[in-house]
Amino acid sequence: MDVLSTAKSWLTDFFDIETKKEIQDLLQNNTQELEERFYKNLEFGTGGMRGVMGVGTNRINKYTLGKSTQGLSNYLKKTYKGQEIKVVIAYDCRHNSDTLSQVVAEVLSANGIKVFRFSALRTTPELSFAVRHLNCHAGIVLTASHNPPEYNGYKVYWTDGGQIVPPQDGEIIAEIDSLSFEDIKFDANHNLIEAIDKEVDEAFFNESVKNGNFNAAGKDDFKIVFTSIHGTSITAIPEVLKRARYNNVTVIEEQAEPNGDFPTVKSPNPEEPEALAMAIAKAEEIGADMVVGTDPDSDRLGIAVRNLDGEMELLNGNQTMVLMTKFLLDQYKAKGFKGNEFIATTIVSTPMMEQMAKAYDVEFKTALTGFKWIGKMIKDFPKSTFVGGGEESFGYMVGDFVRDKDAVTSTLLACEIAAQAKANGSSFYKDLIDAYVEFGFYKEKLISITKKGMSGAEEIKQMLKDFKENLVDSVQGSKVLWIEDYNTSISKNVQTGEEKAIDLPKSNVLIYETEDGTRIAARPSGTEPKVKFYISTNTTLTRAEDFKSVNSQLDSKLEGIVSELNL
Question: Which residue range or ranges hold the Alpha-D-phosphohexomutase alpha/beta/alpha domain (predicted)?
Fold first, then answer.
């Protein structure tokens, strides 16, 4: 893009005074920052449109969101000609989420579209649920998930309650790209904007309890520490746990109030141990059994449970996903499988999910990274029954009443598993070890490297290029067997030359698999300025009593792989 001319185009009378003043200041005093803000347009990634807030085409503001909303409005009107089009909007705790969601509502209404807008912040899973509950054609949530405080974002959901996928995403983007900012209709029709709250809350809470509650024993003796990490889950999780008869719930009050600065943590990401440090300290103080923390829009959850030494240990997303899925499969098995059930995960998540599917004789489906692809499976296979599934990045979905990762219902499910295990004389952690004995001991490690700005984007591009072009022939002494290139949609056996087609959309992902089952995947994040390397290795665990020694061996192997690949 011609940065200078693009920036100056924002000095016309269409843009507000504050915007023009800020651009003038950048033109005169900070051309480097001006370039960062205008060198490209924000694009839809795996999680919609997400970026730093501020003035510019590469920032989240009323104009970039307004243009996206205008394009979506045009697409909806073309797709549903002659119908009363309805869209539901939610927003999270971030700075400007409430005002930006109002702008989005006003643009939709200016285009003659009926808008249901939550009167206060709500969780992303409730927004996904509300799309179908209110018979809407689309849904929008203003959120930047677990990104830093300076970010905000915009996720679009389709009629099925799932995030937009091909062909809708490409067609909507084409509509957006065909517009100029002056095409945005900001003149709201407030008669078309309706506030919603308790009626949808009640319906969502009831469905969450219905899908996540399995009448576990031992609830009165089960202690939970919960933190919303200043996010939206405070509006849902305490109430859902209460309705499922969990009465020993301690909420971390210092983190209970929604706050876009996330003042008590470095990052509001439950994948980071520091984000749950306050809750874990409280759990040790009161002798709690489990800690649960959620990200700002409540689609991801982090869980800490007591390990074999009685200490609180933060589980990773793969571990939580494995035990949740096993528990759900056991419930289905007890009732009798009908033969159409399936579980799902993503290509960078633990291969242990596939081993469990084989053991239970249910179908296993795998998708690209991004929960929209798992939601799409439910739409694509209407005669199949989705049991549950998730991804390594702390997201899980129970059943299909929500079509995106859902920390609300998943929190309840985790508590059910742990409470029942404790009542049985076991624990969440011990049940996980038993699963390793039964299906194989799989252990994963994620290396995430942040590279910000325009130069960072080039560095990430080069790192992935180097990873692809400088192929390794072995990892920790095990020969590379398969190389899966999702850019070319070809999986190649480097030992025999055999090639297989990858039946998934093209994506910038490369995966090595060695003869001993070690897998190493590399991909850029779709929502953050990061490049990610996912490492998975495995071995046999013959007895639960051998867990500590075998776990230590796998840890050493993972560290060896990281060192060998210079990560």
Answer: 43-181, 209-304, 316-436
Tokens of 162: 């799932």
Judged against a pLDDT cut of 80, whether residue 404 lies above it is answered with: yes
Question: Which tens digits make up the pLDDT trace of 160-191?
Answer: 999 999 888 989 999 999 999 999 999 999 99
Rg for the chain (alpha carbons), in Å?
Answer: 24
Angle subtended at Cα 552 by Cα 546 and Cα 554, rounded to the nearest 5 degrees: 100
Q: Are strands 86-91 and 138-142 parallel, antiparallel or unpaired?
A: parallel
Question: What are the residues facing 157 on neighbouring strands?
Answer: 139, 163
Three-state secondary structure string covering 176-204: HHCCCHHHCCCCCCHHHEEEECHHHHHHH
Q: Is the peptide bond before 529 cis (omega within 30 degrees of 0)?
A: no
The model's pTM = 0.95
pLDDT in tens, 9-66: 999 999 999 999 999 999 999 999 999 999 999 887 656 799 999 999 999 999 999 9
Torsion of CA 535, 370, 430, 336, to 10 degrees: -130
- Positions marked catalytic: 145
Per-residue pLDDT at 462: 86
Domain boundaries, the chain: 1-37, 40-196, 202-439, 441-564
40-196 carries CATH number 3.40.50.300: no
Quick one: which of 524, 514, 517, 532 has its CA closest to 472?
A: 514
Label residue 474 by pLDDT band (50, 70, 90): very high
Residue with tokens 């033969």: 339
Longest Cα pair distance anywhere in the chain, in angstroms?
73
Report the amino acid identity of residue 156. Answer: V
Assess contact for 301 and 212: CB atoms under 8 A: no
Sign of CA dihedral 96, 99, 105, 106: negative
- The Cα–Cα gap between 276 and 376 comes to 32
The whole-angstrom separation of Cα 553 and Cα 567 is 20
The rounded distance, in Å, linking the Cα atoms of 65 and 100 is 8
d(CA 333, CA 354): 17
> 441-564 belongs to which CATH class?
alpha beta
What is the DSSP code string of 201-255?
HHHHHHHHHHHH----S-GGG--EEEE-TTSGGGGTHHHHHHHTT---EEE-GGG
User: Looking at domain 202-439, which of 3.40.120.10, 3.40.1380.20, 3.30.70.580, 3.30.450.30 is its CATH number?
Assistant: 3.40.120.10
Rounded distance, CA 429 to CA 148, Å?
Answer: 31
How far is residue 38's CA from residue 167's CA, in Å, rounded to a whole number? 28
Higher pLDDT, 529 or 255: 255
Measure Cα distances from 67 to 126, 154, 296, 560 in Å.
25, 12, 25, 48
CA angle 547, 550, 555 (to 5 degrees): 115
